[in-house]
Amino acid sequence: MSTAASSAPLNSPRRVLAASLIGTTIEFFDFYIYATAAVLVFPKLFFPESSNDAALLQSLATFAVAFIARPVGSAVFGHYGDRIGRKATLVAALLTMGLSTVAIGLLPTYHDIGVAAPLLLALCRFGQGLGLGGEWGGAVLLATENAPPGKRAWYGMFPQLGAPLGFLLSAGTFLLLGRVLDDASFLAWGWRVPFIASALLVIVGLWVRLNIRETPDFQKALEQGQRVRLPMREVLFGHGFAVLAGTLAAFATFVLFYLMTVFTLGYGTSTLAYAREDFLLLQMVGILFFAAGIPLAALYGDRHGTVKAMLWATAGIFVFGLLFQPLFQAGHPWQVLLFLSLGLFLMGLTYGPCGTMLAGLYPVQVRYTGASLSFNLAGILGAAPAPYAATWLAGKFGIAAVGGYLCVTALLTGLALLAINRRQRGVAAGTP
Description:
The protein is mostly helical. It has 21 helices and no strands. The longest helix is centred in the N-terminal third of the chain and has 32 residues.
C-alpha cells in the first residue's frame, strides 16, 4: 500500500486517529444497542403475539437485516468513496447510521400500530446496516492511507478499537438503565434513551470528520487520473480472488463476535438463568480483553504480517470452539467470565489486523469498495445467521453444537488465509 505524500497538506496523526476511532465507536454503539435490545426488549414490544422462543427468533431475524444491507452500503458508499473521496463519504455514512438509530428510538410498538411496527423496525435496521456498510471501510482507509511506513497495522487498528468501545458504551448504558429503572419503566420508555441520545454522539463525530483532509493515497490517485468509472464492477470482475478470499478470511471473526455477544446474552439470561444486569457486567469485563487483544495483534501484524497474525488467532478460535460446553454453564459466573474473556480476547487478536489485511488486497482506486465489500459479505455469511443458528443448535443439540459451528467456521477462515498468504508470497517472488 502506497504511503507516499501528495502535494496536499497532510493530516496530523492525532487528528487522523481520532477521526477514525470516534466514528467507528459511534457507529458500533448504534449497532450494538440494537443487538442488545433485540434480545432484551424487541421480542416483547414488537413481536408480543408469538411464543417467547419464536419472538426471540423473529427479533434476531430483524437483527440480521442490517447484514444484508451492509454490502449495499459497500456498493453505494464505496462508489463515492473511490470516486469523490474518503472524507465526504464518511460524513454521509455517519449521518445515515445516526438518523436510522434515532428513528428506532421514536418508533411506535406493536401495541400502537400492529404489524407495521416490526416492519418499520426492520426498515430502520436496514438503514443502520447501510450506514455501517459505508463507515467501516472508509474509517480503515482514513487510518491506513495516512500511516507511515511500517505502521499500517498499528494505524489500522484504531478504527477496530471502535468496536469494543462502542460495545462498552452500549452495555454500560443498558446496565445503568437496568439499575435505575424497574422492568416496567424500562420496557415502557427506558429502552428508547440510548437510541435517541446517540444523536449527541453523531454530532461530535461529524464535527471531528469535517475537520480532516483527504488521504494522501487518494489525493495521489486523483492527481494521476487513476479513478475508475464503476468501482464495484472493477472489483467484481478484476479482483474476484480478493473478494472471495477476503470474505472467508473475516468469516470466523464475525461468527465469534456475535456468538460471544448476542447469542451468549440471550442464552445466558434465558436458558442459564443469569440476571440480565449480571450478565451484561460479565460481558463488559470480557470486552476489556477484546480491546486488549487488538493492539497486541496490530503490533505482531506490523512485525510479521497481518495474514500471519490472523492465522494464529484463527487456530486459537478453533481450539476455543471445543471449550463451549465445559465452560459455558449455569451457576458458575466465574467460569462464564473466563469463557467470555478468552473468547473476546481471541476476537481482538483476529479483529485487530483484519481491516489492514483486507485493505491490502486491493489497489487504491477500488480499495474503499473492495475492502468494504469483503468485510460486509463476511457479515452476511458469518454474523447475520450466527445468533439465529446458534440459538437453534443449542435448543436442538446442546451448547456443544454451537462450539462445533465455530470450529467449522475457523477451518474455512484458516484455509482462506493460507490461500491469501500463498498468493502474496507468489506475487513477492514474481510468480503468478
